[in-house]
Amino acid sequence: MSRLFETVSKASLERVLRDRRLGPAWRPPKIPAPRFTSADLEAAIEESEIVAYYQPKVDLANATLVGVEALARWKHSHGGVLPASQFMNAVEAHGHARLLDKSMLAQVLLQAKSWQDLDFDLPIALNVQMESLSTFGFLDDLEDAAAAGADISCLTIELTESQIMANPIVSLEVLARLKLMGVTLSIDDFGTGHSTLTKLRDIPFTELKLDRSFVRNAGHEGKAISQSIIEATVSLAHRLGLRIVAEGVEDQADWDYVGAIGCDVAQGYFVAKPMPAEQVQSWAELWSTKQHAHLRPDESGS
């Protein structure tokens, strides 16, 4: 079977962009009433209280650092550093997803340039809401950044499986534009929706992230169902030419298992927790010298 990103040619992507017969615009699902007010969130975003933390992604074959994912963290004046799980529902419910995505994109591109100036080239993944992409404003921001000299080739855009399938026609158009701009595309949280890879094969992804709910503790006994899902997904995804990221690797057993079945990249607390940008380079130096020695494959022959 041909590799997925070889079969999706530039010409076919351009044809998609010429075909303007789109379905209705994607709309986010209704979300329960949030604990934060709209004013709270808008101020937090505009005053840069919500910032990007970075979680490393490492190659399972040799344990080398291959990239990071940018994750939103709110430096709350009273609550400390809040993970996205505590405020993203409120962001979406109040209609601020577009504003947050715009802020996160600006932070990520600025950080990428800062690292590149230090000869520390590191791919950065960013999860984006389909609400942002469906308006094309996000793409315009990205094109403006590229025109101003930003290297957007270091960027991976992650979209959840459920968002893509909510309106695959709109998804294909905006993702075609991203692909033609040189951005890498990733299916995030795969396995939590109701689609299959065969339904997604015409969309120009090069990476698939297994949802942490399947990966966490998958290396332990009593996880036959999760293991069956993971192994079937990995097999088909590799046949389609996709790189597989195992998200939610929490311990040595998880690491050993996802490596043994052919996953390409690991991400999770066993590798590192999300950290501020200023800590990433020193973490990478420590990891490369001694921190991950016990994770390397046994080369002793015993």
TrEMBL record:
<feature type="domain" description="EAL">
    <location>
        <begin position="34"/>
        <end position="288"/>
    </location>
</feature>
<dbReference type="InterPro" id="IPR001633">
    <property type="entry name" value="EAL_dom"/>
</dbReference>
<dbReference type="InterPro" id="IPR035919">
    <property type="entry name" value="EAL_sf"/>
</dbReference>
<keyword id="KW-0614">Plasmid</keyword>
<dbReference type="GO" id="GO:0071111">
    <property type="term" value="F:cyclic-guanylate-specific phosphodiesterase activity"/>
</dbReference>
<protein>
    <submittedName>
        <fullName>EAL domain-containing protein</fullName>
    </submittedName>
</protein>
<dbReference type="Pfam" id="PF00563">
    <property type="entry name" value="EAL"/>
</dbReference>
<dbReference type="InterPro" id="IPR050706">
    <property type="entry name" value="Cyclic-di-GMP_PDE-like"/>
</dbReference>
